Amino acid sequence: MIRRLTQLILGLSLYGAAVGVMVRADLGLGPWSVFHQGAANHTGLTIGLITNGLGALLLLLWIPLRQRPGIGTIANVLLIGTTADLTLAVLPPLVGLPLRIAALLCAVLLTGVASGLYIGAGLGPGPRDGLMTGVVKLTGWPIGPVRTGIELIVLALGWLLGGTVGVGTLLYAFAVGPLVGVFLPIFDVNRRVQEPLPVNP
């Protein structure tokens, strides 16, 4: 459990840091971050506070969807937005396109690693993931179209609110899924527990 908690906290913290780096790159954000940034622009709150606050509100939608939060769910609500704000506080605006592109690429890679870490800890989905799986259970629709539909809705709303949409948004959409596919098996605690111990020759 100590290993899983450590992995969870590290993964969520790195995920929040990746959000902060993508904001500084200013080349486009992931769909949910576009919405968080757009909402932050209109409320005067930080993107981190919006991220955490919306996560808490989404948990209320879990009630009719009969979803159960875990330790990881609560940690997700508390940590991602907080570390995003901390990253933005210490990382100054980036000057020059090459530096911004490098920051974007690092942020997308870090998102894949961080997702593999916190999902692999197996301590509960994030509030946004739980919303997706709850809709799937309620409707019986395939998970792919449900996830895409939700993300397109929040992306459109975020863009209308002034969130940053750009090449980074496309890169995030196409690269993060495959990256998670690479890193999740590496960090999947449940898989490691089920694997047989190696036998010494």
Summarize the entry for a quick read.
With 201 residues, the protein is mostly helical.
Secondary structure blueprint with pairings:
Layout: H1 2-25, H2 31-43, H3 47-65, H4 71-90, H5 97-120, H6 127-139, H7 143-160, H8 167-187, H9 189-194
Helix pairs in contact: 1-4, 1-5, 2-3, 2-7, 3-4, 3-6, 5-8, 6-7
Radius of gyration, taken over Cα atoms and rounded to an integer in Å: 17 Å
Low-confidence segments: 193-201
SS content category? mainly alpha
Main beta sheet strand tally, sense and closure? none
Tell me the overall shape. Answer: globular
Arithmetic mean of pLDDT: 90
Number of domains: 1
Helical residue percent?
over 70%
Strand content: under 5%
Give, in order, the helices and strands. Answer: HHHHHHHHH
Number of strands: 0
Distance from first to last alpha carbon: 30 Å
Number of H/I helices: 9
Description:
By secondary structure, the chain is mainly alpha-helical. The chain has one domain. It is built from nine helices and no strands. It is globular.
